[in-house]
Amino acid sequence: MRTGQEQTAATAFAREQGERFVEELKALLRIPSVSTDPARAAEVRRAAEFCADELRRIGMGHVRLWETATAERPGGHPLVLAEWTGAAGKPTVLFYGHYDVQPAEPLEEWVSPPFEPEQRNGNLYARGAVDDKGQMWMHVKALESLFAAGSGRLPVNVRVVLEGEEEVGGEGIAAFVREHGDELAADVALVSDTEMFAPELPTLCVGLRGMIYTEIEVRGGRTDLHSGIYGGAAPNAFVALAQIIAGLKDRDGRILIPGIYDAVEAPTGAELEAWKALPFDEELYRTTEVGSPELTGEPGFSVLERTWVRPTLDVHGMPGGFTGAGAKTVIPAKATAKVSLRLVPRMSPAETFAQLQDYVAKLAPKGVEVEVRMIHSGDPIVVDTENPYVRAATEAMHEVWGKGTVFVRGGGSIPIVGDFVRVLGMPTVLMGFGLPDDNLHAPNEKFSLANFHRGIQSLIGFLVRVGAHG
Ligand code: BES
Ligand code: MN
Ligand code: MN
Question: How far, in Å, CA of 442 to CA of 107, rounded?
Answer without folding.
Answer: 10
